[in-house]
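Work Package 4 report. The design task specified in the project plan requires that, given a folded chain encoded as structure tokens, an amino acid be chosen for each position. We show below one input record used in the internal validation round.
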């Protein structure tokens, strides 16, 4: 049976490192507060007008080289981000232009922290049906230019970082690769983690009040996010395992969306995982939303933490709320 598999990955983060002490010069916070609540020690920020299409182009070049492919070998681009270069068009076409492959379809995914796993599920379906052979899947974010650097926004601002991760998917005929994907959403919580403005329901769409009331910056009900994350993550991971007649013991590596180290720790505890079964790198990157899973996956592969035939589980939870998982036989 034809399935999809990840052929190669690449990651790219801007070179500017912002430590917690540097963050404390921008907003009233401290290294201690940030580490204690989130585990984050530093993040990368762009230092000029660089968009997600630029970051992902760098990651894409690495993934193509590792796959020994040219951009012309790609049949489709799927681009997950909540921080696109422009309101429209989406960043998929901008990356396609940089790659020099006009005519190739570019689909933009708007599922925030779950964007990469949602995108993986779409890529998997296209490859399983035989419609496409090779798909470039991107998760990329530039958060730093859209955060609120003051006391009102500090509980959000300290958590996020910029970066991009790319995976190239191809077909597999031997049963390895993506075993299953599982997607969920609950729009009743849409406004618990959001940026509402500028939005098309406002007249006029852009007005100075948005800066005053902070509605053009991310709003997060941290406690509500935490509460849902620590229950939805284990549930959707179990769903992927149950679907494939597997147990938590079978997991070789779980790569959760890097939301917050405290959330990952709570998930590991609830699933009774050994420390080596879960990969976390939020300490060095902050929360890079749609980019966090492909960046972590790329690092884990580079560190040879994943071997052939390993069971890799990807899982995400975030704004929407949306949550998702994928089981992959490497
Ligand atoms: N630095 C210093 N003090 C701060 C900061 C900061 N950056 N942010 C808030 N505070 C202060 C508050 O003003 C408050 O002070 P007060 O007690 O004098 O009023 C105090 O710290 C506690 O603030 P709360 O907002 O109540 O903090 P809480 O204990 O709820 O923790 C946190 C906030 C860390 C965000 C927590 O709710 C949490 O971990 N939530 C999970 C959310 C998350 O990690 N989201 C990740 C992004 S979303 C995703 O990827 C799914």
């Amino acid at each position: 049976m034809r399935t999809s598999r990840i052929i190669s990955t690449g990651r790219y983060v801007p070179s500017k490192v912002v430590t917690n002490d540097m963050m404390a010069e921008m907003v009233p916070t401290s290294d201690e507060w940030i580490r204690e609540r989130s585990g984050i020690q530093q993040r990368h920020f762009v230092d000029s007008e660089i968009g997600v299409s630029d970051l992902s182009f760098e990651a894409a070049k690495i993934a193509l080289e590792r796959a020994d492919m040219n951009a012309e070998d790609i049949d489709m681009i799927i681009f997950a981000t909540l921080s696109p270069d422009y309101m429209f068009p989406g960043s998929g076409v901008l990356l396609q232009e940089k790659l020099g492959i006009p005519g190739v379809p570019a689909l933009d995914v708007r599922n925030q922290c779950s964007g990469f796993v949602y995108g993986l599920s779409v890529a998997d379906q296209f490859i399983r049906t035989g419609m496409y052979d090779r798909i470039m899947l991107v998760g990329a974010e530039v958060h730093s230019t859209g955060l609120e650097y003051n006391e009102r926004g500090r509980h959000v601002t300290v958590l996020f970082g910029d970066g991009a991760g790319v995976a190239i998917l191809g077909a597999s005929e031997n049963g390895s690769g993506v075993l299953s994907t599982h997607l969920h959403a609950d729009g009743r919580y849409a406004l618990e983690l959001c940026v509402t403005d500028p939005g098309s329901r406002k007249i006029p769409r852009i007005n100075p009040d948005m800066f005053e009331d902070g509605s053009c910056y991310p709003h997060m009900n941290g406690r509500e996010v935490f509460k849902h994350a620590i229950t939805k993550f284990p549930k959707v991971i179990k769903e992927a395992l149950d679907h494939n007649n597997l147990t938590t013991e079978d997991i070789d590596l779980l790569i959760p969306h890097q939301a917050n180290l405290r959330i990952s720790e709570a998930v590991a505890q609830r699933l009774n995982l050994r420390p080596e079964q879960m990969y976390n790198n939020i300490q060095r990157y902050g929360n890079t939303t749609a980019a966090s899973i492909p960046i972590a996956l790329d690092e884990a592969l580079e560190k040879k933490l994943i071997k052939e035939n390993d069971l890799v589980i990807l899982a995400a939870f975030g704004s929407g709320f949306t949550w998702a998982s994928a089981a992959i036989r490497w």
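Residues 178-329 form a domain with the Peroxisomal Thiolase; Chain A, domain 1 fold (CATH 3.40.47.10). Validation will be extended to a larger panel in the next phase.
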